[in-house]
Amino acid sequence: MSKITGKSKLAKAVEPTENNEKLDLVKASKKATLKAYRLYPDDIDRLKKVTAIMNQASHRNISETAAIRALIVLGSKTTGEKLIKALRETI
To answer: How many distinct structural domains can be found in the chain?
Structure first.
């Protein structure tokens, strides 16, 4: 009979190995960056109207910050000419 030498396959599989590979299984959450803007009273009134319209169409309360985020997304999907036209209306 021969004597078994060395480790079994199971022992080798379970044995911890030094692996410096970084696994991105869970993505880090986005951190909000605080940014302050100065708005004229007319702009604040417009923002409140937009937020009120969004709240009427939604089943949950939407904050002014969420409304601003939605407006940024809409702005990124439109053309530069339309944005310039809207900017001229505010002046």
So the answer is: 1
